[in-house]
Design brief:
The complex is a heterodimer.
Chain A (H helix, E strand, L loop, with lengths): L2 H18 L8 H4 L58 E3 L5 E4 L9 H13 L6 E4 L17 H28 L7 E3 L2 E3 L5 E3 H4 L33 H4 L16 E5 L8 E5 L2 H4 L4 E7 L2 E6 L2 H14 E4 L10 H7 L3 E6 L11 E8 L11 E7 L2 E6 L4 H11 L7 E5 L11 H13 L6 E4 L2 H7 L6 E10 L2 E11 L49 E8 L14 H19 L4 H7 L4 H14 L10 E9 L6 E10 L6 E11 L6 H21 L28 E6 L15 H16 L10 H9 L3
Parallel strand pairs in A: 2-3, 7-17, 15-16, 19-20, 23-24
Antiparallel strand pairs in A: 1-2, 4-5, 5-6, 7-10, 8-11, 9-10, 12-20, 13-18, 14-15, 14-17, 18-19, 21-22, 22-23
Helix pairs in contact in A: 3-4, 10-11, 13-17, 16-17
Chain B lengths: L1 E5 L2 E5 L7 H8 L18 E4 L2 E4 L12 E3 L12 H8 L9 H14 L5 H8 L9 H18 L7
Parallel strand pairs in B: 1-5
Antiparallel strand pairs in B: 1-2, 3-4, 3-5
Chain lengths: 777, 161
């Protein structure tokens, strides 16, 4: 059975369980427990004696009851084991030999399922095909928060690596007892322990009566990194065969017995109020089951999907809204942002004062609001039954969403179960959670019938939380070809308004009794939000960095892939090139001159070599650019070089060769890393070349792909060549957001190299490029 | 009642003729391949072949399809027995989230059936009707090259009916 089918079957089982049982138990962890002979004699949740709906006993943070006996002064456990230390939370081996691995992280298209299976297979020493992986589900898996920040490999990968090694260690000790032989003479082949004199014992035969409901140790009997069999190989993704053959791969593809379809009629603009509605005609339309209205939340439910769409369009025509002008003047966006009150925090160099002198270089960079723009609009299915609700969702955080939906529906959290099913790629906090809330709200009005809600394109484009507009200002002084002083300021809204509370769910603000959103907060360093990667990795003797956090949010914003790192790396790495030019230095050499981090130096040299930086032959109209960053200053290292050609007449830019080098620590799946870097480069080029949310006084006007164009095939690079620097045995470093900042800056630097003009405002669309080329001609 | 030819099979559906083909394929015939992306013919996630031409099924009324051959990604093969286009996408690992991929494959199938050896520039121009947000473009281009080679090798146009 493919992983895709497993996911679908899992959803179906949960559905059947939900429908068949007297109460909505959903698929409980207990359902997985075999009787007699199961390695797992008790799942950690069951230790707390709860088996109601959704097995919703796990709290947002693991509680002491769930942590086993914690030794005094215990060293921290690896990865997410620290939060959920019981081995049976992660791995289960049945008496029939079935191996199930649990992760609280979700497949977002980044290939994490395949990588986690590789890790488990490596340390359990079994064929990867034998492993069933269960992903984010409040009824089954550990709570690992959000699948975000490129942290799945660090958190979940590390937990599964160590849990698998410890489970194998326990099984080998049992085999050693059975064989009366020391452990160190035993070997394992595909789940069979090999002992002296040809004796063997399968894992299945060893599990009888064993309790894996034990706390993990800080130390694990890890296999030797030099003898990897599965990790480090480009194993094919487990989800792709289903996706290329029309399998039920996505929440959009779910069809449950008795399911109805709903569409929400969203207000025409932020803050609009529903004044009147003449819905009688709509109620009589074919297939219409129900019209749901709660304050400004308006939705229609129909038997078939296109009936729901037709009815929602009709409902929109007969609804009257009072709108308000809440949006800033588009032309004045960045200046008006900087006039808003800000909470300023110096995040580096408290003592540094103003830069002075004639050799000071200054620059200001600007970024517009940009959208996630998933190709598949957000979708969820919900079923309300027996005073509880189950939501199938592509949210990045099933546990936080469960808490928010429980609050929204005035239910205790253990009456809500959220199950992750893949959706279209999200690239951060898009409308996935909102769609989950829509479905839950509507399902609560139609108990017993599964309700599927999918957003329309214009809803997704105009109501998703955007990546915030930002301004950065850089100043630096040069001394003898080196950066002697540095000041960097970044103005930004928050980069996370993710749920956890009902007020963060889009529809919650529309209800007759609305839930107010939480006060926006900056995300703290060292990861940061608007100030992510605002501190340069370079060695600079005197540096000061200030995060100017703006609480007021005229447009709805939240986490877009890489958060502030996209803009800060674009700014810093553009500015480094401006400084290199002022110092008459080669940009690559200038970076190396200021860098001490050995792994950073290696990726810079790797990308330069792969591009052929030192042999580059200049041709008219073309230029080359380089950039580097370590994501969050603590995750993957990435350096990118690229060539562009600028069409002087049209202002159009064509990207030629792109060469990248990446160091993600131990590379579990090098092809997966390559895929992430290639994708990051293309997505960042799309943001940087084309993308900008637009509005008039009241309404978002970039409501479709016509008015929010993204990169099409005709304009993607000629080639992207990625060098993965593998470091077996080193910690996993998140890769999914490593390329966005460097790609944007390498592109900007190449444009400057090709034209002699520095563009500091995103997007570099043809009108802006033409205007720049005409300056001071 | 409208009679459709979908992946070589006659299918009768009782549906309003104005309903876009996409919803008939997904909701009446329970085929997952064609996806809703925009409903506006701007993104290509819903692309299917109508006779030999790729069309946006989200804006194609089912009434105009009656009696004509509709092909979806399900008609290219199965996960146990994938056709050349599907094999090429698997071999090149040409997906991230994969939501756009079935539409990509159908447009590419349409191209290769009309022009078995397109130039790289022709492929890029032809595929520009379809959007991918994960940035998997370079792999998709490689997969289309590979699919073309597989089809030329076997002398078939792929397992389509």
């Amino acid at each position: 059975m493919s992983a895709v089918e497993q996911g679908t079957r899992q959803a179906r089982d949960a559905q059947h369980d939900a429908l068949d049982s007297g109460r909505l138990r959903s698929l409980s962890r207990r359902a997985f427990l075999g009787t007699g002979g199961a390695l797992v004699v008790a799942f950690s949740l069951l230790a707390r004696g709860q088996e109601t709906l959704g097995q919703g006993t796990k709290q947002e943070k693991a509680e002491p009851q769930n942590r086993g006996e914690v030794p005094k002064n215990a060293p921290p456990l690896p990865g997410s084991l620290e939060q959920d230390p019981m081995l049976d939370s992660w791995i289960r081996i049945d008496a029939n030999g079935a191996i199930t691995v649990f992760t609280g992280k979700a497949e977002l298209g980044q290939g994490v399922k395949t990588a986690l299976i590789q890790i488990a297979a490596e340390e359990l020493i079994v064929d990867p095909a034998r492993i069933t992986l269960i992903t984010a589900d409040t009824g089954q898996t550990p709570n690992e928060g959000y699948t975000a920040g490129s942290q799945s490999m660090q958190h979940s990968g590390t937990a599964i690596l160590n849990a698998a090694a410890q489970v194998r260690g326990i099984l080998m000790s049992l085999a050693a007892q059975r064989f009366s032989a020391p452990v160190n003479v035993l070997t394992v082949q595909n789940g069979v322990v090999q002992g002296p004199a040809g004796r063997t014992a399968t894992y299945a035969s060893l599990v009888a009566g064993v309790d894996l409901h034990v706390r993990a140790s800080a130390q694990s009997p890890l296999t030797d990194p030099s003898s990897r069999r599965v990790m480090g190989t480009a194993m094919h993704r487990v989800d792709i065969p289903g996706k290329v053959t029309g399998g039920e791969s996505y929440v959009q593809d779910m069809r449950l017995p008795g399911m109805v379809h709903a569409r929400v009629v969203r207000p025409p603009s932020y803050g609009a109020r529903l004044q009147g509605l003449d819905a009688q005609f709509v109620e009589r339309m074919p297939g219409v089951v129900k019209i749901v209205r709660d304050g400004n939340f308006l939705a229609v439910v129909a038997e078939q999907e296109y009936q729901a769409i037709s009815a929602a369009r009709a409902l929109a025509r007969v609804s009257r809204w009072q709108e308000r002008a809440t949006l800033p003047a588009p032309a004045d966006l960045h200046a008006s942002m900087q006039r808003l009150p800000s909470k300023d925090k110096v995040i580096l160099g408290q003592t540094w004062n103003t830069l002075e002198g004639s050799d000071v270089v200054r620059a200001t960079y600007r970024r517009p609001y940009q959208m996630h723009g998933s190709i598949g609009p957000s979708c969820a299915v919900a079923l309300a039954k027996d005073e509880g609700v189950t939501v199938w969702t592509h949210s990045q955080g099933v546990y936080p969403l469960r808490g928010a939906i429980a609050e929204l529906l005035h239910l205790p959290p253990d009456r809500v179960r959220c199950i992750h099913i893949e959706g279209s790629g999200c690239y951060g906090h898009n409308a996935a959670d909102d769609a989950g809330a829509d479905a839950a709200l509507i399902a609560s009005k139609l108990p017993g019938r599964p309700v599927r809600v999918q957003w329309m394109r214009e809803e997704e484009h105009s109501w998703e939380p955007y990546g915030p507009a930002m301004v950065t200002r850089a100043r630096a002084a040069l001394d003898n070809g080196r950066i002697a002083g540095w000041e960097f300021d970044v103005w930004s809204n928050t980069h996370s308004t993710r749920p956890g509370k009902a007020g963060e769910l889009g529809p919650a603000s529309l209800l007759a009794k609305p839930f107010p959103p939480s006060a926006p907060r900056p995300l703290p360093q060292p990861e940061g939000g608007g100030d992510r990667n605002a501190i340069p990795l370079y060695s600079i003797p005197r540096a000061k960095v200030t995060h100017r956090f703006i609480p007021e949010m005229p447009l709805r914003v939240s986490a877009l892939r890489a958060l502030g790192a996209y803009m800060n790396v674009f700014s810093i790495e553009s500015f480094i090139d401006e400084l290199a030019a002022a110092a008459r230095a080669d940009p690559v050499e200038f970076r190396l001159r200021h860098l001490e981090d050995a792994r950073g130096i290696e990726v810079i040299r790797g990308a330069a070599r792969r591009f052929g930086w030192s042999e580059y032959a200049r041709t008219p109209g073309k230029g080359r650019g380089f950039a580097f960053a370590r994501y969050k200053n603590l995750a993957a290292y990435c350096a990118i070089a690229m060539e562009v050609e600028v069409m002087r007449e049209s202002g159009e830019i064509r990207v030629g060769r792109v060469a990248a080098a990446v160091d993600s620590g131990e590379a579990v799946n090098p092809d997966g890393i390559r895929n992430q870097i290639e994708g990051g480069v293309v997505q960042s080029l799309s943001w940087t070349m084309l993308e900008e949310v637009t509005w008039d006084g009241r309404r978002i006007t970039s409501r479709d792909w016509g008015r929010y164009p993204i990169l099409r095939f005709a304009h993607v690079p000629a080639s992207i060549d990625v060098d993965v620097i593998d470091r077996p045995g080193q910690p996993f470093l998140g890769t999914g957001e490593a390329a966005q900042g460097p790609a944007a800056a390498a592109f900007a630097n190449a444009v400057a190299d090709a034209t002699g003009k520095r563009i500091r405002q995103i997007p570099f669309d043809p009108p802006r490029v033409r205007a720049a080329l005409l300056e001071n001609r | 009642m409208i009679r459709l030819q979908v992946n070589g099979q006659a299918r009768d559906v009782d549906v309003d003729g104005a309903t876009p083909l996409l919803y008939v394929l997904r909701d009446h015939l329970r085929l997952n391949g064609a996806k809703f992306g925009c409903g506006l013919g701007q993104c290509g996630a819903c692309t299917v072949l109508l006779d030999r031409e790729p069309v946006f099924s989200c804006i194609t009324p089912v009434s105009v399809v009656a009696g004509r051959a509709v092909r979806t990604v399900e008609g290219l093969g199965t996960s146990d027995n994938p056709g050349p286009m599907q094999r090429a996408f698997i071999e090149e690992q040409a997906a991230q989230c994969g939501y756009c991929i079935a539409g990509m494959m159908m447009r590419a199938q349409g191209l290769l059936e009309q022009n078995p050896s397109p130039s790289s520039m022709q492929v890029r121009q032809y595929m520009s009707a379809n959007l991918c947000r994960c940035g998997t473009h370079m792999r998709i281009l490689r997969a289309i090259d590979r699919a073309g080679a597989l089809m030329r090798e076997t002398g078939t146009k792929g397992k389509t009916t």
